[in-house]
């Protein structure tokens, strides 16, 4: 395939006329397709239906410590659910509080606690003039929405193939005590699918922040969401690394079963040091008398343990893998070698990131919309929705049927070609 960069102006114009014709043919079909939603397909959700029978009217409702799961009590979760969630994060059960149905909710609460109460006796952030967070980009839009909501200033840190640019992170946190946190999705990052290298995790754990109450928000949302087996997705244990580096209190780790059992109907958890857990419990005990332990019991009875979760996630992978591969094969066959952008093949998680040439992402998303394909808005994976290069597009292959996905991926490629050629001919 001839690279666009090697074409003359006339050839580019000719090519644009050709791809515009193809684009128009797709447009005339009046399709309605959606590649914007990073949520499980109904086929994946069917895999979890056994959860609904895991506890029924005949079941023993006692947890293994004798606690009646139907009643109040057990603020930090039933012991067997702590073990299950610890298994997902590969931490010790005593490092875990099992929370409600959403890890995002738990993260929101942790930022709110920093704001209103302060961590471990430090000044609440709301009393400070300025509070800042580091935001590896591209990243998860809802993380950025939480910090924006609380008026936290967000600083972009570029992602590399090994995680956030650690030279920049180290320098910034050491210099500025207004920087109170960093958002991290360490495994199969949203949206690029990056797996943090051992060096990145070690450097993160060994940070020397100017702020005593600086925290790493370690959102291990895709801890067990492998497409090609667990081996490829191994990362170091951040709690252990922080302990080794003399920073035991510097991290909060989060996870949930939202994309394991039911999205919004699962269980979430936080893992942290003993001191942090005690601090969290001081306000948690005011906030709630306890979370839904019946749901915790249901999850334990259905999944049993970390092995049970791993087996279940293999079934999810069987659904997801062909969808990812279909999109990647389409990108490869349509766009490879054109000089119209790049992408990385993710080993797990929920997204593929396409990076267009500078200044083309918004145009691609708009063209796709006009041809009936909804994509995540360009800019969404950046704080304040602003992609400085206007080049990142998040593709979510999990939800559409294979047939819809095929059409959507093909249309996407045509839109990339049109937008790239238009830009080159400006
Ligand atoms: N964290 C990341 C990185 C996500 O991608 C998502 C959902 O897409 C969530 C958290 C949401 O998790 P939960 O449903 O547990 O709130």
From TrEMBL:
One MF term in the entry's GO annotations: transaminase activity
Protein name in UniProt: Aminotransferase class I/II-fold pyridoxal phosphate-dependent enzyme
Record keywords: Aminotransferase, Transferase
Superkingdom classification of source: Bacteria
InterPro entries, A to Z: AspAT_Ic, PyrdxlP-dep_Trfase, PyrdxlP-dep_Trfase_major, PyrdxlP-dep_Trfase_small
């Amino acid at each position: 395939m001839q690279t666009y960069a090697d074409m003359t102006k006339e050839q580019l114009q000719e090519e644009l006329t050709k791809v515009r014709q193809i684009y128009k043919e797709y447009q005339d079909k009046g399709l309605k397709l959606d590649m914007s939603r990073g949520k499980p397909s109904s086929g994946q959700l069917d895999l979890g239906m056994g959860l609904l029978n895991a506890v029924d009217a005949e079941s023993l409702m006692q947890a293994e410590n004798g606690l009646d799961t139907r009643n109040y009590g057990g603020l930090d979760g039933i012991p067997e659910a702590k073990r299950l969630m610890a298994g997902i994060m590969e931490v010790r059960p005593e490092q875990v509080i099992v929370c409600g149905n959403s890890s995002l909710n738990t993260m929101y609460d942790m930022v709110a606690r920093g704001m209103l109460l302060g961590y471990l006796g430090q000044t609440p952030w709301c009393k400070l003039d300025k509070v800042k967070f580091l935001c590896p980009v591209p990243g998860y839009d809802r993380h950025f929405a939480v910090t924006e909501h609380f008026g936290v200033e967000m600083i972009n840190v570029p992602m590399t193939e090994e995680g956030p640019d650690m030279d920049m992170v180290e320098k910034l946190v050491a210099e500025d005590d207004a920087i109170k946190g960093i958002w991290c999705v360490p495994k199969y990052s949203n949206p690029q699918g990056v797996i943090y290298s051992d060096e990145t995790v070690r450097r993160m754990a060994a940070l020397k922040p100017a702020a005593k109450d600086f925290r790493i928000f370690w959102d291990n949302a895709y801890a067990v969401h492998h497409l090609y087996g667990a081996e490829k997705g191994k990362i170091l244990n951040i709690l252990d690394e922080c302990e080794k580096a003399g920073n035991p209190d510097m991290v909060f780790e989060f996870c949930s079963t939202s994309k394991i059992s039911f999205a919004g109907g699962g269980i979430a958890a936080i893992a942290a040091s003993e001191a942090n857990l005690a601090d969290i419990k001081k306000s948690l005990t005011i906030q709630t008398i306890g979370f839904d332990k019946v749901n915790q019991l249901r999850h334990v009875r259905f999944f049993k343990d970390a092995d049970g979760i791993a087996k279940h996630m293999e079934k999810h992978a069987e659904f997801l893998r062909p969808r990812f591969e279909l999109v990647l094969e389409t990108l490869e066959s349509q766009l490879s070698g054109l000089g119209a952008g790049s992408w990385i093949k993710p080993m797990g998680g929920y997204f593929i990131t396409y990076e267009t040439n500078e200044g083309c992402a918004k145009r691609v998303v708009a063209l796709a919309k006009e041809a009936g394909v909804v994509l995540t808005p360009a800019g969404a994976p950046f704080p304040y929705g602003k992609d400085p290069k206007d080049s990142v597009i998040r593709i979510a292959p999990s939800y559409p049927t294979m047939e819809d996905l095929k059409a959507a991926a093909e249309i996407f490629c045509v839109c990339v070609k049109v937008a790239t050629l238009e830009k080159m001919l400006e």
